[in-house]
Amino acid sequence: MGSRLIPKVEDSSSRATSTWSSTIGDPQREAVRRLRLLSLAATIVPSLFLVFVSILSPVGSPIREARALTLTVIGSAVLLSVGVNFALSRESISLPRRLDIGFGYEVGIALLLATMRHSIPWAPGDGFREVSPVAILILLFAALIPNPPRRTLLVSLLAASMEPVGLAISIARGNPVPAPAQIMAICAGPLFTAIVSAFISRVIYGLARSVDAARRMGSYRLVALLGKGGMGEVWRGEHDLLARPAAIKLIRPNEGRASTHELKRFEREAQATATLRSPHTIQLYDFGVAEGGTFYYVMELLDGVDLDRLVRETGPMPAARVIHVMRQVCKSLNEAHSLGLVHRDVKPANIFLCRYAEEQDFVKVLDFGLVKSVDKGETKAEPGMTNANAVLGTPTYMAPEMVLGGTVDARADIYALGCVAYWLLTGRLVFEADSVVKVLVQ
Asked: Nearest to residue 157, comparing CAs of 183, 191, 184?
């Protein structure tokens, strides 16, 4: 993608999976995502076991009758997991409520595991015959589900209390009562792991909060990476309070290519965009420096495609459509020129064709990173090739005065726009060559 960063909206398929695969960084959403994975696993694995048992042990067989309670418990766990997974996938249910459902699920599964464990009578001196599955469940939830330590301790204690409940159910079904020492040994494991789970949760939740803090830019939270460029990254972001998605462009000063010049260009782009009000210019929501020195600015998230990609994938555009697009680009550039600003990097990749509210083929002009102010006397263009042999702007669309380092004004943008129109109509570049230098010479 070069140095270009496009604020592109996710399509319908990515929207459908955003909660499932692109929410790492928000502890609550990540907890719900992992709960869904656990409930899905608890649905598939026991279901396969039940199918296996039904094949090897048909109805009426001695093995099946002897393990009737076990099979009933496993079937109940499958049904519970299916219901919980469905509830967790409902976006209409708030995240805190879905977390409550998830931790109720932990307690429910603990009860089923304890019931199955105690279905076999305890022999004298048999208090440590195996590790409690309830204890394993408690440690699993504490390690995988980010949650505040106090809440983890509360839920873990509730889950641990299912061990004596399962034992009571076993006694109620006619099994003998174990000795008091055995009962203490049976219940000690889950209780101990419940206490340990609080310390595990403190570490896991702290790491989740650290990731969340690292992915916050002002009031916005980074959700999914949309693209990377030579100057940084573009992320899909969400505001803490407003139901408005956004594209967040950022550059980290500790990256090798993030020189002082690039940081200034990034700041200049944000300031220039903020002064423009044309509906055909990308709108800026916020700008600042986050913790760690990361520069960022927040802009509207667009649903569409840039003209470079559009022509490459679908071919030249009809003349009437090109005129429609060019008129909108001219409106954006006209406002910038009236304020004494020259874009200097007009090209198909910086012109976005999108769906905007109810309008189709709505144009947004992007990337004012090379903008110069004519009113401030910044009319002297840098030479086309810098000392590092890097091109400022895009050679194919650069006006001759930009290549030669002469005075640049609004006419440079008009020249570039003509090259863009030629590309849209023909699918070809005005000047084609096998090297940047040959293009500049032409």
From this structure: 191
Query: 3-state secondary structure string, the chain?
Result: CCCCCCCECCCHHHHHHHHHHCCCCCHHHHHHHHHHHHHHHHHHHHHHHHHHHHHHCCCCCHHHHHCHHHHHHHHHHHHHHHHHHHHHCCCCCCHHHHHHHHHHHHHHHHHHHHHHHCCCCCCCCCCCCCCCHHHHHHHHHHHHCCCCHHHHHHHHHHHHCHHHHHHHHHHHCCCCCCCHHHHHHHHHHHHHHHHHHHHHHHHHHHHHHHHHHHCEECCEEEEEEEEEECCEEEEEEEECCCCCEEEEEEECCCCCCCCHHHHHHHHHHHHHHHHCCCCCECCEEEEEECCCCCEEEEEECECEEEHHHHHHHHCCCCHHHHHHHHHHHHHHHHHHHHCCEECCCCCHHHEEEEEECCEEEEEEECCCCCCEECCCCCCECCCCECCCCCECCCHHHCCHHHHHCCECCHHHHHHHHHHHHHHHHHCCCCCCCCCHHHHHHC
Q: Does pLDDT of 83 surpass 80?
A: yes
The C-alpha angle with vertex 252 and arms to 251 and 254, in degrees rounded to 5, equals 145
Structure tokens at 331: 């409106």
Answer whether 0.70 is exceeded by the pTM. no
Give the pLDDT mean for 393-407: 74
**Which segment, 77-81, 271-275, 320-324, is predicted with the most confidence on average?**
320-324
Q: Which residue has the higher pLDDT, 78 or 290?
A: 78
Encode pLDDT of 309-357 as tens digits: 999 999 999 999 999 999 999 999 999 899 888 888 899 999 999 988 7
26 is a catalytic site residue: no
Q: What Rg do the C-alpha atoms of the chain give, in angstroms?
A: 31
**pLDDT tier, 417 (very low <50, low <70, confident <90, very high otherwise):** very high
| Catalytic site residue from 286, 308, 345, 413 | 345
Give the per-residue pLDDT at 205.
80
Does the domain formed by 221-302 have CATH 3.30.200.20? yes
pLDDT interval class at 437 (50, 70, 90)? low
- Domain boundaries 304-442, CATH class: mainly alpha
> Residue 399 pLDDT > 70, yes or no?
yes
Q: Which two tokens stand for residue 355?
A: 């769906």
Tell the burial category of 204 from Cβ atoms under 10 Å away from its Cβ (0-12, 13-18, 19+): buried
